[in-house]
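Database export, one record per block. Field names are fixed; values are copied verbatim from the stored entry.
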Amino acid sequence: MSMSFALGRSGRGRCTVLSKAARAYSSAPSKQMSMLAREEAPEVKKIGGPASWTGKDLLEKKWWGYELPTSALAELDDALKYAYTTSLDWEGEIPMNMAQDKFPLKGAADIFAEMSDELENGTGAAMLANIPVEKYTVEELGVLYLGICSYIGNVVQQSSAGLRSKSRGYGMPLGHVKAEMKGKTPLDGKQANNYFRLHTDRCDMISLLSVRTASVGGHGRLASAAAIHDVMVDRAPDLVPLLYQPIERIWEGGEGVIALPIWAFEEKTGKFTTQISPSYIENAQYVNGVRKLTADEIEALDLIEEIGLEIGHDFLQKPGQLTFMNNHLVYHGRTAWKFAEADDVENVRDNEENGRLLLRAWISPYNSRPLPDTPAFNEMWGAVAPGVPRGGLDPAIKAGIKAKPAELVEAYTSGKADYYGMYKRKFAGEDVHL
């Protein structure tokens, strides 16, 4: 049996068809899933539209590499000074209660509002190229950065089912992305200089401000989820429907594992969304009771990285460059980078205090899209309505924070688990021994 449906710019009509197919696949025994997918798969059409782009396309966009005018930079500087006169609550050097009333802007606010439209209704990616990071301390940059973010949306607490590192931002409005150890697999709550496959975070939008780069490596990677989807429709059409079915991944709330599709559409508006973290999916395979993925499912997940690196954008995010990425439209990743231990006097440039550093915020934009109204989306996001605070750690707290599964912890401490070992493809930039 074959099902087909018209695409249309909004994608309306496809959510119902695909969700029915996904339920059929997910209820079938694992060994039958590949055959069922091939025989019963709906004919999935391409998404297209402004959210489908290549790296070359992105470089031609106004908002990728946009330079703030001198007047806006002066406003930011004045707002930063004003913020320090207000009642800021601090945890260490991180302000916990930044808001627009503590960071007043006028002309710059209009710029950020225009950029917000591009992030939701255009490519889903933007870069401000000239934040003067050299003028400020890391603490001051945190205030300025969160002040800017307050004009994009609500800043939410960051979460991580894997590395629950406060230094990285777990439970905080701001994280410091850096290396605290060398290695392919982060251990003992420490951040590593490891490669990250293309992924999304559990928030509507992620933002990164570069403060320092490594002497070698540490490139960022971006790719359009819609463009990857459309290439896969051409290259492996039989695998595409598998990514519309629920796939288990670890998370820190509820039962510790939750199943969501990689690709989905909100039924009423036809708005597209995606949710993927290859390591979280891989980690769930070590948890007792989780259905084992088929070879075709693993192949489909592996293809996302392969296609994304072919058509996406690889770049070194230089100091002062501030990126915003809509997690419903854009995947991001990174290459490994050079890191030196504190006692390595010959490579002090790349140690924890002097090496690669980015500030990170998770944002729930004021103009965010509606999400599929399903139990799983409601549980993990906390809300599916547009424009409301959602995502991050709060939904996990509401569902009840879950300890990491003991069998998963054992798999990593014993060496049984190999980070990204479930996937057959290897890619440039994975070497952590730079």
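Remark 1: The radius of gyration is 21 Å.
Remark 2: The longest strand covers residues 357-365.
End of record.
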